[in-house]
Specification:
- It is built from 16 helices and no strands.
- It has helices at about 65-70, 75-95, 95-110, 120-135, 140-155, 165-180, 185-205, 215-230, 235-250, 255-275, 280-300, 305-325, 325-340, 350-365, 370-385, 395-410.
- Helix 5 packs antiparallel against helix 6 (about 165-180), helix 10 (about 255-275) runs antiparallel to helix 11 and helix 14 runs antiparallel to helix 15 (about 370-385).
- The radius of gyration is 22 Å and the shape is globular.
């Protein structure tokens, strides 16, 4: 998703263990699609005025902004606010979260509050992306506050005209509730409202003769993502299979349809992994990878940057082979994921650390405890740098894995 995602649910860390906690390292669950958040997928690159197109992830909705055309000359404050916001968007997609958040705060301060029953979409977007930047900085409390601001603005304005935009923010707020420890029951309040909106839109578009296949794919995918959040995997799979069916009969090599079909295959792979049907999971992950390669081949004119999604698929393939007791195959895919992660200009230390832990798990399974410990320790350094919190569950899990390598070698004091 996945997702991820950009501010996403990148890694689920529920423990999947073949033995007891005292005997085996904690095995992280599959990586959700790296951009699982409900987005319109745009083929339009960001303006060269602010950044080269290669610096922007084109799988996230990045509008082709033209400040000269958008900003009214009579209102220099609004023009400055919009320009500041657009620069912040580019910083966000380059994962410069601190700078992006600062720019969004400035843009918000320059934007007048809407009148009664009026929706200022750009202000809502500013608050939403301010939340995205905070989430990228591992600050779920601040992110939740920003998403709440955006939702409040939608509800006070013409919310019927912007239901789908509000649904996207509701999903993100639900994610923050989970990260803050509020529990899934509270998050489900937001997920349920968002799902009702997407299902309503899908029902309307199914009887709309002018609805495009890309639009139907998007709505089915979004409903599938929310169904996963609500732990309704059977319903989610039906939505994802609808996306796949649309792609089968589409002959135009549409960028967006192929992208969403790749995501749908990854999501079904995740469902199969959860059910411990690892061979089926591998088949879906491989289909997703083939679709991504195909999209690059047939849409060469597009600036497609789906490195995070491809990295997620590699990691998921590695985990699936690991569960099948095929360590060398698992290591091959973890190493592929590692090369992609390390090639990024703006590295995600937590994702790199998670991948190193998976490689450490392979070495642990092969009883190569020195190598496993080295990988765990390197991951631990990255996690400490990123999280700055020795009591964080992620850091404690890795310390636990390091301890297990000493235990296996009889170094009980260590």
């Amino acid at each position: 998703g996945a997702i991820t995602d950009t501010v996403t649910d990148n890694i689920i860390t529920s423990a999947i263990q073949s033995k007891t906690a005292a005997e085996a390292p904690v095995i992280a669950d599959v990586t959700v699609s790296y951009n699982p958040e409900v987005e319109n997928i745009s083929k339009r690159p960001a303006p060269k005025k602010y950044a080269s197109t290669s610096d922007v992830n084109s799988s996230v909705a990045v509008q082709n902004f033209n400040v000269a055309n958008t900003a009214p000359t009579r209102n220099s404050g609004k023009a400055e606010a919009l320009e500041t916001y657009y620069v912040g968007l580019v910083k966000l997609h380059k994962r410069d979260y601190e700078e992006a958040r600062s720019l969004f705060e400035k843009a918000i301060s320059l934007t007048k509050a809407p009148k009664y029953k009026e929706t200022k979409k750009e202000l809502n977007d500013m608050w939403e992306h301010h939340g995205d930047a905070s989430a990228g900085l591992h600050d779920p409390i601040k992110a939740d506050e920003s998403y709440k601001k955006a939702i409040d603005l939608y509800q006070k304005g013409d919310k019927d005209a912007h239901e789908e935009s509000m649904a996207k923010v509701l999903l993100k707020r639900g994610n923050m509730q989970v990260l803050m420890g509020s529990g899934l029951s509270r998050a489900k309040i937001y997920y349920n409202v968002a799902l009702r909106i997407w299902k309503k839109s899908l029902s309307q578009e199914k009887i709309n003769e002018n609805a495009t296949e890309a639009r139907l794919c998007q709505l089915n995918y979004n409903a599938g993502v929310l169904s996963i959040k609500l732990e309704e995997c059977g319903a989610a799979e039906k939505y994802f299979l609808e996306v796949i069916a649309i792609h089968i009969f589409n002959t135009e090599n549409d960028f967006e349809i192929i992208e969403l079909t790749a995501r749908a295959n990854t999501s079904i792979g995740n469902i199969r992994y959860k059910d411990k049907k690892f061979t089926e999971a591998i088949n879906y992950y491989e289909k997703a990878l083939d679709l991504r390669n195909h999209n690059h081949d047939v849409n060469k004119s597009e600036e497609i940057n789906d490195k995070e999604e491809i990295t997620g698929i590699y990691s998921n393939l590695g985990r699936s082979y690991f569960q099948q007791k095929q360590p060398e195959q698992a290591m091959k895919f973890f190493q592929k994921a590692n090369r992609t992660l390390l090639s990024e200009a703006k590295r995600n230390e937590l994702l790199i650390a998670e991948n190193w832990i998976q490689m450490g798990n392979v070495r642990f399974q092969q009883k190569e405890y020195d190598d496993a410990r080295e990988l765990y320790n390197d991951a631990l350094k990255m996690q400490r740098k990123a999280l700055q919190d020795e009591t964080h569950e992620t850091i404690l899990q890795t310390c636990h894995d390091v301890a297990l390598t000493h235990l296996k070698e009889g170094h009980y004091e260590k």
